[in-house]
Every structure is written in C-alpha cells, then in structure tokens.
Design brief:
Blueprint: H1 11-18, E1 20-24, E2 26-27, E3 37-42, H2 47-60, E4 64-70, E5 74-80, H3 86-94, H4 102-106, E6 111-112, E7 122-123, H5 125-131, H6 134-144, H7 148-152, E8 165-166, H8 168-183
Parallel strand pairs: 2-8
Antiparallel strand pairs: 1-3, 3-5, 4-5, 6-7
Length: 185
C-alpha cells in the first residue's frame, strides 16, 4: 500500500496486465543481503508478456536486483528501495506514517475510487493515514474500540513483519481459499 507505488508502479495496472498479487518486505524462504528490499509477487497468465515486462524493468531501473520463481507459476521481483527514500522505508516499518517525507507522500495515490460505488473519487487511504484526517481517526476509533492516536501517535497500526513477510505456502492457501469462495457465488 505504501512501498510499491514508490517503485514507480500503478498496482491496478500491474494486477490487470501482469498478475500482481502483493508486495512484501521480506521472503521467509529466501535470504537477502539488501537492507531495504521490496518483494513483488506475481502470477502472470502470459509468461511471454511478463518476461518482456521484467526485461523492460531491468532496463528502466537499477533498483530491480533479482527475480526468481516458485512452483505454481509464481514469480517474485526483488527491488532495492530507492536510496533517497530509505529513511521513509524505516519510518514506514516503524509505523511513523505522519513523518513520511513530502516527496515520498507525493508519489502515493492521492485519490481512489469511491467505496460507495459512485463516480466521485475519495482521498486515498494512504493520504488519510499520513494526514491523520479527523474522519479517518474517528472511523479507526470505532473499528479498534479505543483511541489509537493515544497509543501510537498515529491513526494506523505499525506494520507486523509477519504480515509483511512473503510466505509462499501461506499465500497459495489464501489464494486457493479466495478462489473457492468466488466459485461458490
């Protein structure tokens, strides 16, 4: 939600064109020597088109440092987070969203489709979190049941490394469960 757009990607486009699934800060099955990695997981339908995308990415940015496959058609691209945003990477990891730099914040989506289904765009969740909008704080208090701002000074929880770590077996089970749920409707 916060890191992938900084790599220069529109997640909606990545999902539609290349089968993007999610981004992570680590991979449980792979050691890495990179201090600020971002792991993008894909399950592409057309491997030829996807390989063309990967080739273009290696030419576009030196931040793409590695790619590898998992059984079942899953591909992982590993990026080293851009040098100028590594302080923001650390702040994100610490849950200090309101302390993210202006340059970093400007690269995040400003608006998203309305959750109510109308055609009026809404401020993105990332911006609501960074700006700590009163209505977002209020809705989070209702969900959490307490004033999260008093606990953390932020209106969104600190990322849990367990959730930010790719576990390919867990991801495959989650996707299978999701697909089974969609087939029953």
């Amino acid at each position: 939600m916060f890191l992938v757009p900084i790599l220069g990607h529109d997640t909606t486009l990545l999902t539609k064109e290349y089968g993007f699934i999610d981004g992570f800060m680590a991979d449980a099955d792979k050691e890495t020597s990179y201090l600020y990695p971002v792991f993008l997981v894909f399950k592409p339908e057309d491997l030829g088109d996807f390989q063309d995308f990967v080739d273009r990415e290696y030419l576009r940015t030196s931040d793409l440092v590695l790619d590898y496959d998992y059984d079942g058609g899953f591909v992982v691209l590993v990026y080293q987070f851009p040098d100028k945003f590594q302080k923001d990477y650390r702040r994100f990891k610490q849950g200090k969203y309101s302390k993210l730099s202006l340059e970093f914040s400007a690269r995040l989506p400003a608006y998203e489709k309305s959750s109510s289904g109308n055609n009026i765009p809404e401020m993105s969740i990332q911006r609501r979190i960074i700006l700590q909008t009163p209505e977002f704080i209020e809705s989070m208090m209702e969900i959490v049941g307490e004033d999260i701002m008093k606990i953390t000074g932020e209106c969104w929880s600190i990322p849990k490394m367990e959730d930010e770590t790719l576990d390919i077996g867990k991801l495959k089970r989650r996707l299978k469960k999701y697909q089974l749920g969609n087939n029953n409707t």
